[in-house]
Amino acid sequence: MERIRITLIKSPIGYKKDQKDTVRGLGLKRMHQVVEHEANGAILGMVQKVIHLVKVEKI
Question: How confident is the model over 36-45, as pLDDT tens digits?
């Protein structure tokens, strides 16, 4: 399965709680932190919800 690299590029401070929870659910705690996940439907849906806060790359 394809993998994606997700980087937190903008702080979730000032955004709704559900968006903050989604960022935390992706495993992102600090600015410029990078995590890798399998590109399944659940992860892609979470990324789409906070696409304005993260950068996504295929690996």
Answer: 999 999 999 9
